[in-house]
Amino acid sequence: MGLPVAPEVLVLEKRKVERNMKIKRYFRGKNAIITGAASGIGRAFAEQLAAIGTNLVLSDINMERLEMVKQALIKYPIQVVTSLCDVTKEKDVEELAKLTVGTFKTVDFLFSNAGTAMGGHIENISMIQWQTIIQINIIGMINCVRAFLPKMLEQQSGHIIVTSSICGSIGTGGLIPYTTTKFANSGFCEALYGECKGRGINVSIVSPFPLKTNLIEEAGIIIPPGLLDGISPEIAKAAINKGKQYYWENFCARKGLISGFCGGMEVDIAVENYLRKIANKKLYIFERWHGRFFQFVRGWWPSLYKRTLLLLGNRSIKLFDKAFEIAQSSVP
Question: Could you confirm whether 246 is annotated as catalytic?
Fold first, then answer.
């Protein structure tokens, strides 16, 4: 005879079952488009939605990786379509919308997830680099919403989910281009919610803290002028990658609320949390309580918020400076 189960354990288990059922009811049998689906958060969204029973249109600029994702999903009884799409190109996104509507007739979820990161000292970031991140993170999002929103309005239903960042809720020195675009993502979504919620469209802003994804592989780290002059591109790239790895590992280190952003969480755990909150139609979605804490401090305790900005900015810049040293010292 087994040991008796405590009533509070049974209550928790019941709540977990109810939450899972709600997620399944919200997503199962529906149709979703995910941009940036070849890796990271986009891939995790695809895998978990496929397991629930959501039909998918997956897009990315890396078709080799995207096809690998598709192959991993063939075990599920759903329809999966893949498409090459550069979200910065309006025509690409319009074709993606035509493909989605032509395949599934309805569009229930748009996951505008494609994005990139960039950091370094503000004075070293060129206008071309600014334009690059703005095109991907802001114009890419706008292109996606403009392409898919008309169909959702016609249906009088749909849910738009934009992947922003905790940097879209609290300014982070050293990551000014990234922070700028992520605040734009969040502001756009707030306004979109205000305009379209009454017309049947839900909007959610996914705001990740550092997660264990491959974002750092694609991120731009802007080195000081002259740091790697006279070095072959291959050696320079390897040196920069070593610096980036140092930055990311230490930025994600579990060293407390402010200095470490509470550690890098496994992406699958985070995405499971996001899907639950999307099903609950939350506007701002964080995988950790600290996001709400920062929002509270910003509104109700401005002196602490300013101190937090200084701590985050100083830590990030120090990590970049160390990363630059490591990059330079790694050159043979």
Answer: no
Residue 318 placed within a domain: no
Residues 6+ apart with CB under 8 A from 255: none
Residue 138's domain is classified under what CATH number? 3.40.50.720
The answer to whether residue 202 is domain-embedded is yes
Please state the length of the chain.
332
> Does 190 reside within a domain?
yes
Phi/psi at 157 (5° precision): -160, 155
| Number of domains making up the chain | 1
pLDDT at 213: 63
Give the pLDDT band of residue 11 (cuts 50, 70, 90). Answer: very low
End-to-end CA separation in angstroms for the chain: 68
Q: How far apart are CA 99 and CA 165, in angstroms?
A: 29
263 compared with 170, residue with greater pLDDT: 170
Give me the domain span that covers residue 142: 7-218+263-300
Phi-psi region of 262 (alpha: psi -120 to 50; beta: other; left: phi over 0): left
194 CB-contact burial (10 Å; exposed 0-12 / middle 13-18 / buried 19+):
exposed
Of 26, 178, 274, 284, which is the active-site residue? 178
